[in-house]
Amino acid sequence: MSRPEDSLPADLYYNDAESRKYTTSSRIKNIQSSMTNRALELLDLKSPSFILDIGCGSGLSGEILSSVASDEGGPHIWTGMDISASMLDVALQRDVEGDLLLADIGQGVPFRPGSFDAAISISAIQWLCSADSSDISPQARLSAFFNGLYASLRRGGRAVCQIYPKNATQKHMIAGAAIKAGFGAGLLEDDPDTKNSKVYLILTVGAVHINGTGMGDITGIVEGLDGVDIHDARKQMRSRKQKDKKGSKAWIMRKKEQLERKGRVVKPNTKYTGRNRGPKF
């Protein structure tokens, strides 16, 4: 069976007819509800939070965020972004509670640094891996998205992205782009090796409090979950920091990457970056 992302770009595939069909299908609504609740379980939010819904579509996931009971940490406030104007039009007709933004996540996440407590995405990120022309780079689009998402989340924030990767290569390309942006990342697969398999990319920004016991990393967050493949770039970064001499080219490049992830504007790298200057006369 062909995949939607292999036929047309998302903004063209989800036209008026397809958007209404998607939103009114009881089967799709049940699947979306199940995956959204699973994402919320993995986010493990203890109090009402400001959440970014990436690829929000017609607001099916957003409705669940708004309806979380107070004894379960809700209700949450959310903002959704999607590339399909037709999907967002359906969301407006349904009078969802969240704010909506028409935007291409492959161009970045256009919010102030540290705006959100958490983020979710249901069945959207794999669209970035498809290119309908030779001048589109999936790697560049993934990089722009994850760099923007990293900057938009507060320190200690989390994101859970449910994805439908085409194969293992695509799955690790997505996770690799998240790690390169600075996230601690874990891949969790529910019902592996079945047609009902669901893959969740669990992301953290910096260290977070784990069960009130102090600071932890992605390993602590997914502790007790079976089948989690953990990728944490920060451990590699710590070993790099010990090797990079202050003022060296590697040290300067790392500092510039850190500033870019925080949403700062930095000068582009050139062949002169980090080069020792000659003596002054």
How would you summarize what this structure contains?
The chain has 281 residues and is an alpha/beta fold.
Key structural traits:
10 strands, two-stranded antiparallel sheet, 37% helix, single chain, 281 residues, 20% strand
Overall description:
The relative contact order is 0.10. This protein is an alpha/beta fold. Helix 3 crosses helix 4 (60-66) and helix 6 (138-152) packs across helix 7 (168-180). It contains 10 helices and 10 strands. Residues 208-221 have low confidence and may be disordered. The strands form 2 sheets. Strands 3-2-1-4-5-7-6-10 form an 8-stranded mixed sheet, sandwiched between helices. It has a two-stranded antiparallel ribbon with strand order 8-9. It is 37% helix and 20% strand.
Strand content: 15-25%
**What is the ordering of alpha helices and beta strands?**
HHHEHEHEEHEHEEEEHEHH
Overall body shape: globular
What is the assembly state of the chains in this entry? Answer: single chain
Count of DSSP E strands? 10
Mean pLDDT, as a whole number?
Answer: 85
Q: Counting H and I runs of at least 4 residues, what is the number of helices? A: 10
The separation of the N and C termini measures 71 Å
Strand order in the largest sheet: 3-2-1-4-5-7-6-10
Spans where pLDDT lies below 50 across 5 or more residues:
208-221
Helix-residue proportion? 25-40%
Q: Which structural class best describes the helix and strand composition?
A: alpha/beta
Output the radius of gyration. Answer: 20 Å
Main pleated sheet: 8 strands, mixed
